[in-house]
Amino acid sequence: MSLIAGKKVALLWGGPGSERLVSQKTGEGVATALRALGAEVVEVDVTGPDFTLPDGIFIAVNMIHGTFGEDGALQAILEARGVAYTGEDAATSRVTFDKELTKECFVKAGVPTPLSQSFRLDGTDKLQLDLPVVVKPPREGSSVGVHICRTAAEFEAAIEDARKFGSSTLVEEFIEGRELTVGILGDQVLPIIRIMPVDGFYDMSNKYPWLTGSGKSEYQCPAELPAEVTSAVQAAALAAFKSAGCKVYARVDVMLRERDMKPYVLEINTIPGMTPTSLLPKACNAVGISYEQLCESIIQLSLQART
Length: 307
Description:
The chain has three domains: 8-87, 3-Layer(aba) Sandwich (Rossmann fold); 96-112 and 176-306, 2-Layer Sandwich (D-amino Acid Aminotransferase, Chain A, domain 1), CATH 3.30.470.20; 116-173, 2-Layer Sandwich (Dna Ligase, domain 1), CATH 3.30.1490.20. Helix content is 34%, strand content 25%. The chain has ten helices and twelve strands. The chain has helices at residues 20-36, 73-81, 90-97, 99-109, 152-162, 204-207, 209-212, 227-243, 279-286, 291-306, and strands at 8-14, 40-46, 59-62, 116-120, 133-136, 147-149, 168-173, 177-185, 188-197, 217-220, 249-257, 262-269. The strands form three sheets. Strands 10-9-8-11-12 form a five-stranded antiparallel β-sheet. A four-stranded antiparallel β-sheet has the order 4-7-5-6, with helices on one face. Strands 2-1-3 form a three-stranded parallel β-sheet, covered by helices on one side. The chain is globular and about 60 Å long.
């Protein structure tokens, strides 16, 4: 019998951030799965901090991607209210959502990661890395605002765009190679997925073509890699997960440098997508974990992490 059978579960979806529509799609799938597990599901469309939860809930299932849902803000509110919830705690979420803070964890723990610099946008900083580089907002998800810059002109345009997201941005060494992602459930490292965008890189359009009306990506799961490379990638992903204090679940994005097949960890997604095209469910399916079992595992691991 499912641990949530007969229990009232609040499903939190939406959020005020740029990934609201993706979260809505995730929420649809998770709600169906939770009901199949026998839970009484109350869907809560969260648009900001003043949301209302029903009385007597067993746990709040947080499926809000990006700003507010993934950055520790929602977690802090739930902790203050004494409500059990899924995913990482507020402190860990604050770190993993901030790419600069996550990078510090990687470096301290010896996790392989691209060279980078925090670049102030007031005109006082100079680029310290050689082109090509990647410019990315430190506190956005789903590749929002990410630019690959191969020329000085592209870099200047990316810096101008970065001003929409804050007073500084992260500039990172560009790793030429294969885009990989690794799902982690507790201590279980899932099969590696290779991401192959048909055009460009794995941006919002290529991640969610159903949302943008354009873009397309192909996937290989498990990724076809030599055994020793598979082990190295999975080890790097798990080390990154632990370095940031994660205990529940996440999807770790990795670049595999083509010239020497060395993995470089980019970031950690602590509330990865759970839409029909999302990658964590794909990886689970490859080892016989159904969508419903994945949802229940997230709840179980979350409760264990709080004990």
